[in-house]
Specification:
8 strands, 9 helices, 3-stranded antiparallel sheet, Rossmann fold, 15% strand, 207 residues, 48% helix, 5-stranded parallel sheet
């Protein structure tokens, strides 16, 4: 079974994905993680993507689909796509790469997204993630794991978060109807606790 996690930034796709991978053995494909890796490496793709990401805009479809095709290859594994596809054209492109059997739509209000993401901090050294509300570091501004400095990603500022949410609604929300018409969409209340969200998702996967 190949599964798509659909939802706005801050809906908890990454947290849910890690638990689903552990429970079901999916191969996790997060285009956001792939893009950030490329940015960190300073590759051609990374330089191209960086401008779009910092403005809160979507990276062009052909770039994203090329990365996904390269990662999937000829594998017969079951894949979990985290935050991808984001547009109808990406969804149609993905369908040519692998069949999709289930789409989990994480539904969440804009204000909750802003509250969650503006509180996120990342370690400059080891990349560990913290949240000042739900998972704060023991010492403010310092990573528990390596002692590195914590910082706020440029795309986690409130004005960028709101823009990302609007971009999501304009360009990605049509996917909800696209997948609902195919009969494979399951809606999940992502404002609930991580355990409740996981329970709903696991139930949908087990059918």
């Amino acid at each position: 079974m190949n599964v798509v996690l659909l939802g706005p930034p801050g809906a908890g796709k990454g947290t849910l994905a890690s638990r689903l991978v552990e429970e079901f053995g999916f191969v996790h494909i997060s285009t956001g993680d792939i893009l950030r890796e490329e940015v960190a490496k300073g590759s051609e793709l990374g330089r191209l993507a960086k401008g779009y990401m910092e403005r809160g805009e979507l990276v062009p479809d052909e770039v994203i689909l090329g990365m996904v095709r390269e990662r999937v290859g000829d594998s017969k594994d079951c894949f979990l796509f985290d935050g991808f596809p984001r547009t109808i054209s990406q969804a149609e492109g993905l369908r040519e790469i692998v069949p999709i059997h289930l789409v989990l739509y994480l539904k969440i209000p804009e204000e909750e997204v802003v509250r969650r993401l503006s509180a996120r901090r990342v370690c400059r050294k080891c990349g560990a993630n913290y949240n000042l509300i739900t998972n704060p570091p023991k010492v403010p501004g310092v990573c528990d794991k390596c002692g590195g400095e914590l910082y706020q990603r440029p795309d986690d500022r409130e004005e960028v978060i709101r823009k990302r949410f609007r971009v999501y609604l304009e360009q990605s929300a049509p996917l909800i109807d696209y997948y609902r018409k195919q009969g494979i969409l399951r809606e999940i209340d992502a404002s609930r606790s991580p355990d409740e969200v996981f329970s709903q998702a696991a139930e949908a996967i087990r059918g």
